[in-house]
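Reopening this ticket.

The earlier resolution said the output was attached, but the attachment link was broken on my side. Pasting everything inline this time so it's all in one place.
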Amino acid sequence: MKNKIKVHIADDHKILIEGIIAVINTDDDIEVEGYSLTGKQVIEWINSNSADILILDINMPEYDGIEVLKFFKQKKITQKVIILSSYDDVKLVQEMINLGANGFLSKDSAGLHIIEAINAVHNGDQYFSNGIKNNLLKLYTGKNVKSGNRPESTILNSLTPRELEVLKLITDEYSSPEIANKLNISQSTVDTYRKSLLKKTNVKNSIGLAMYAVKNNII
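Inline output:
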């Protein structure tokens, strides 16, 4: 029997928590194991509990979402996190990513995309709602090559045919298991290609790879 994806929700609005629970309950493969109403409660919860996914609001009393992520990082706590926020400022998104967030979902799209986001992050990918993805696209496509970095043409020429295949599939939002299945290779091999792509393209994550591919017409 397939194990259910266990989710913990942290938000200071109980009505929103109830709404998310109602949506999640429509999926038989996901279950909510509990919730927290403050950042302090999240920290108390993580000290003796865990979940596959933590859905974390940024604005909460007694430690906000940023402070919670900083606590996780300081204590080297490994916990997959989807940030839930009313804001989609790209600098805020970048800060969340640097602190270890795996996804960023705007509250106005949570009802439609929360299950999709949970599955994506649980499968080892990152997830960003469309508005946030568009803002990241503008950021990456508008960025100049920094001094000391290799020109784009040199980077492109260094990518192997298989790396290009993997990059195209990442851009098409395939998960690592799906890429492995499609290319008939192991997931560990996919992860090796992914790490190589991150190093060669000088980006930090999957969304960076996708934006790089879009910028260079690798589609």
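Reporter confirms the inline version is readable. Residues 187-201 form the longest helix (15 residues). Residues 161 and 167 are 10 Å apart (CA to CA).
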